[in-house]
Amino acid sequence: MSLISRRRLFSAGGAAAGGLLLSGCDGLVRDEKLKRIIGSAEAATQRWQRLVGRDGLAQEFALSDLSPVFKANGTQNPREAEYQAHAARGFADWRLAITGLVTTPMSLSLADIRRLPARTQITRHDCVEGWSAIGQWTGPQLGLLLKAAGLKPDARYVVFRCADNYGGEVDKGGSQSTSIYYESVDLVDAFHPQTIVAHSMNGAPLGVPHGAPLRMRIERQLGYKHAKYLVGIDVVASLAGYGRGKGGYWEDRGYEWYAGI
Amino acid sequence: MATVPIEQAPPAGTLVVKRHSAVVRLAHWLNALAMVFLIGTGLNIFNAHPMLYWGEYGATADADRRWLSIAAAGRKGGPYGYVEIGSLRVETTGVLGLSTGANGQLQALGFPGWATFPSYRDLGTARNWHFFWAWVLILNGLLYLGHGLVSGHIRRDILPRLKELAPANVLHDIARHARLDFPKGEEARRYHVLQKLAYGGMVLVLVPLVIFTGLGMSPGMNAAWPWLLELFGGRASARSLHFVAMALIVGFIVVHLLMVLLAGPINGIRAMVTGKLRIARESLT
Prior knowledge:
heterodimer, A: alpha+beta, Sulfite Oxidase, Chain A, domain 2, 2 domains, five-stranded mixed sheet, four-stranded antiparallel sheet, 6 helices, 11 strands, about 25% helix, about 20% strand, B: alpha+beta, Fumarate Reductase Cytochrome B subunit, two-stranded antiparallel ribbon, about 50% helix
């Protein structure tokens, strides 16, 4: 009896292997139970990377290592009239709001931000697609801003809101729209010394294709975490309430929230 | 009851020997499954940017750093797909660069849908699955290596002895393979030198290389273990070497499957399932 079932097991295994080869396996992707099992790898990766390198610094390069052309990806020029108006005025009235679970909410002008002590770092930007480029970034550390605002005890995540209707759909109303680009990190990456709010790139004010006037640099994670066209920093206890609740525009579309790999 | 070939009593004149330990068999099949998914998802991920470079970085504009690209281009008479390695361009329409999609239409795509998982372009899903199976590959590899070192399997069965590596012996083995003259009798009890080199090359060189070059592409691991990229000469190089290691692994799998077919697939596969290999007794000395 056990012999028969072993043979059955064999033919079942053979059929499964054959199915795989014929790409009949796309259905696996839609299986909710499998999706949860497969998705468990993300938490394992995050825990592992925090275990071996919680305080590790991303490699920093020399000026001579800069990419001749730093590829711009995603939105390269937000079409919204409000953004275009800001761009036309040289972002003179741009403001960055720091709100949420903070004791002192703030609204900073670009001039305020440029006056803050800044960190300059030459780092490699790794796109999820596979290409990479080296650029120089300057701006205050996010940790500095968060300390000034003062975190309340239940703060767990920092959400970056952007003036970028990346999905292109009609605005359904502020940060609730699933079409607006946004991103988020936990407090470990928020307070990492290389996590900065960059206002300059390669020694000049940030250009529009790279997120003018402000973008995030989250150096130990992939490019989609580095939100461009930054208008707001929200300190929150939960990521629910933004987009579809997964913590970022691309996360809402199936990408990992922890993008350290 | 005993009508199933797999457990049939061996014919007279054959000897049944213990070939593979339970750990080796489990590791082998788990590895095989992981490889199918890792290669399929890896090719899907590659398709998001089907170009490879050497050095610390590389993007579309860095033509001087690029050594491979798979793409489609247009010309009179319609588009064509090609692979470009250095300055050499080979047309690969139908397979690489340009292939027929599920809807029957030609589509510009690095590797064709039948080679990728999922069969359509989906970087997010491919990454989810790639990293899940990467964990399986790593944990399975640690189990195999730990067991192999403690049990002596690697030293006894995998590492070639010095005298086996003598050129005359290697050449002799190559010649016998070319004649499809596979070991019988007493000789068949252990791996010969080409098998040792192939299996050892896979489990001790290629799989570790593919894992460490994979980790070398991770910005999180780069910060944790800066030596990873010092070892591989930069992130773009690590990505290239990851691809090369994958190609060599695919080469191993093709030759391995061919050899299993030629040397007797039923006996070989049965041995990797039950652990027992049958050897013709009359040729025992």
